[in-house]
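Hi everyone, sorry if this is the wrong subforum. Our group has a chain we'd like a structural model of before ordering constructs, and none of us has done structure prediction before. Sequence below.
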Amino acid sequence: MKNPSLSCLFSLGLLLPLSAQITITNSVFPALGDTLHFAVDNQPQGIVMTPPGGDQQWDFSNLQPSYMFEQVFQDVQTGPDYGSFPSATLYYQTTTPDVDAYLNVSAQNVSLLGIAGPDPSLLSLDLIAHYNPPIIQSRAPVSFFDINQISPGLLIPFLPGILPGVGSLPFNADSMRLRIAINRIDAVDGLPAIF
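Answer:
Right subforum, don't worry. Here is the predicted structure as tokens:
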């Protein structure tokens, strides 16, 4: 004999609305030959951003790009400095002329290992700079309100002779280095709607 209360509860369970949290997987990670298109609006008008949280819609249709650029993910072995980044799987040319970014793409992360080319700062160095640890640019899986913290850095050695006025310093140096520390907290405060 069937238990009517069990059948009733099961039927009611099917009638309840199902809800699920959106999770972004590594299927969005870049692959060889992919191109990311960027459009930057330096002076956005009419965009109302509410505090982060669920059940919100943001309308970005009024954005007017001031400039656009692309990142084309290329075979790392075609990169001019690929030998300096043995764990790299892809590279792309940055918006700074002749500066290349080397990435490692795994099942869990897209990590920026470092950059190579003319120094984008004011020192005018030709450099190969390794982030230690690498900068995680993307993670998977990613869910709403995930929070991650990273603290990578750069240590760039150079010869003092390239800087003006080094001879007037109160010490003699045969080498110098520039240390850059980065502290970053990533918070997933919005995910795309699925229609």
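For your construct planning: Confidence is low (pLDDT under 50) at residues 5-13. Helices lie at 4-15.
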